[in-house]
Q: What sequence folds into this?
């Protein structure tokens, strides 16, 4: 990995809307997926701030691959970054997979404007019995979960059975996997799904600013 600033910022500094994004468990803040999402949102007028958890920063420095830190360590890093960008009240927080999950676990505590999860890991791979949804039933923060319809960490059919808060909106990307990529035979393209994801996020963030998200 190349050396990068502690925070990556895209989009106009004076934008009306700012979203802070954390990466997934296995890829850094400058992965192709994160670059595409951040760049696309920036082009649509949203300021995007990206950061890395400590375990990923260590991987960047040493090259050694280690699993994510304990949840409390990830949580502290999220809260630290929120403080550095000026507090939660005027921002949307979220991220890819693990990053979005951790954001969802602090959302009601830090009270951001909203929450965006890009491919939420509803359960570990192959373990649909180990659900990560208990805190989502009572979530008060307005939230958008963008999910591939055949995501192995939570498909459309599985999610229909979960008890989710009415504060959560769901956007399914047709035939998308955990990174939103569809199969060739579906007739969809990865670019189409990524564009749909961007439009969903932008619309949600704009409705939050207008006070009409829910």
A:
């Amino acid at each position: 990995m190349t050396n990068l600033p502690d925070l990556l910022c895209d989009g106009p500094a004076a934008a009306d809307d700012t979203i802070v994004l954390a990466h997934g468990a296995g890829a850094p803040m400058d992965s192709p997926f994160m670059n595409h999402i951040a760049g696309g949102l920036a082009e649509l007028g949203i300021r995007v701030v990206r950061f890395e958890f400590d375990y990923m920063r260590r991987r960047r420095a040493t090259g050694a691959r280690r699993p994510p830190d304990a949840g409390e360590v990830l949580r502290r890093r999220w809260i630290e970054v929120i403080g550095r960008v000026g507090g939660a009240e005027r921002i949307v927080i979220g991220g890819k997979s693990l990053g979005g999950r951790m954001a969802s676990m602090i959302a009601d505590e830090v009270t951001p404007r909203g929450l965006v999860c890009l491919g939420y890991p509803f359960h570990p791979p192959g373990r649909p019995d180990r659900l990560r949804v208990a805190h989502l039933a009572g979530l008060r923060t307005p939230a958008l979960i963008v999910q591939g319809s055949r995501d192995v960490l939570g498909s459309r059919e599985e999610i229909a059975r979960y008890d989710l808060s009415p504060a959560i909106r769901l956007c399914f990307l047709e035939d998308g996997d955990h990174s939103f990529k569809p199969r060739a035979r579906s007739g969809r393209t990865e670019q189409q799904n990524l564009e749909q994801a961007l439009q969903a996020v932008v619309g949600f963030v704009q409705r939050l600013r207008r006070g009409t998200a829910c």
Q: What stands out?
A: Residues 146 and 171 are 5 Å apart (CA to CA). The first strand starts at residue 7 and ends at 10. Helices lie at 32-43, 54-62, 71-84, 98-110, 156-159, 190-210. Residues 7-210 form a domain with the Rossmann fold fold (CATH 3.40.50.1820).
